Amino acid sequence: MFHFIQALAYLPMAMVYPTKIVGRKNLPKGKVIITLNHTSNLDAVVLILNTWEKKYFLAKKELFVSKARSWFLKKMGAIKIDREIADVSAIKEAFKVLKNNKKLVIFPEGTRNKTEELNLQQVKHGAAMIAIKTKTPIVPLWIFNRPKAFRKTKILIGKPYELDEFYGQKLSDEVLEKASAKVAEKLNETKEQAQKMFNKKREKDGKI
Hints:
By secondary structure, the protein is of the alpha/beta class. Helix content is 40%, strand content 16%.
């Protein structure tokens, strides 16, 4: 069902929101946590429709506003999470995804970045905590420009890394702070690479 919906939605989505993804080879087989900056409610949709393998992603409960929309989101891999509480049910579901050797998408900023510059906001502890507890590699991904109708969205997938220096440690606030700082560092490195790559291309094309 997922690939049927994906194939059905891809063409109209690609016409309205054309997307260029660089670095696909950096996505390893098997379980992985994909961390990315959060620019709009379309971020996960753009990623999922433009990469074939099914991915699961944490989505705020406010998006599940109707039965039809809830059905669509769940079929596309959404895991409903209540951001106002420690949503144990959603976290357990995320663990289950990784236990089944699947891919999990997390927005570590926790909310959309509404600034024009898209500089990385404060990174929450969730992504680091899940990665450490499940010993899962992380792939940083940077959305260079916010998805906008009839403008190409450019995305760079960075190289995978692990938080293995924290494996086996008690996950105190201090440890999670250090681990989350590494998650932020890797995202910012990917952002810098994306800026160099895509800005250079724009200059070559004479668009800036």
